[in-house]
């Protein structure tokens, strides 16, 4: 039974990795088409709201009942910042580099988990953190081909992503998943709307199709990850999230400008190994 659950959970997590990769490629294509980042983030926020409608239909306004509204607002702020910075990084970096730098969020989470959450951080998590930051140093060495502004933006996105992780850990101890998702939908839409209105520009029908696909498909990541962790053991299914780097890296070989240099591959290897070490250590704990 446990093995069957792990296989099902691994399938869900692998599907989530495919959606992650699909999101990255969509963002890259929409940037190339000149669709403003603010409009993309607004589409993502509206998609999140769309996926919470079934919960709202069954539970009504009671879904927003919570004693931790400020923490929900902080989580929404971290989410909006993560999406905006992550998408922006694709304007400077190739798909694989932007994706691998996003994995540094697990290193930042390790650094902040003890002082902010009181979690015990063991040797494995510290070793993974050091390996990850060593990889960043290799990728951003003097003379590196990686865009420094793009790397700074990608790492800032990872730090904001760390904020999502930490606030979620606090919220899940008191609030249900539908409540967390509903608050996220409302807060992100309200935060992003002024920026989207300011950046608005006429869109042709193909731009609208890109955005519709983005809006409806990408929020599925949260559902797939949740179901993966529900079906199988975290230590067995969580590492499958890193398949998205393999998918993106493989697709990048077909786009000449998307192939990183050898040093970037080496640094990416350190970051990926560090992230895997931390992920497995946390899941087993």
Q: What is shown here, in short?
A:
The chain has 285 residues and is mainly α. It has helices at 2-32, 37-59, 69-89, 95-102, 105-117, 123-139, 148-171, 177-199, 205-217, 220-231, 234-237, 243-252, 262-284.
Please provide a written account of the structure.
This protein is mainly α. Helix 2 crosses helix 9 (205-217) and helix 5 packs across helix 7. The chain has helices spanning 2-32, 37-59, 69-89, 95-102, 105-117, 123-139, 148-171, 177-199, 205-217, 220-231, 234-237, 243-252, 262-284.
From the structure above, extract its key features.
single chain; 285 residues; mainly alpha; 13 helices; 0% strand; globular
Sequence-ordered SSE layout with sheet pairings:
Layout: H1 2-32, H2 37-59, H3 69-89, H4 95-102, H5 105-117, H6 123-139, H7 148-171, H8 177-199, H9 205-217, H10 220-231, H11 234-237, H12 243-252, H13 262-284
Helix pairs in contact: 1-9, 1-10, 1-12, 2-3, 2-8, 2-9, 3-7, 3-8, 4-7, 4-12, 5-6, 5-7, 6-13
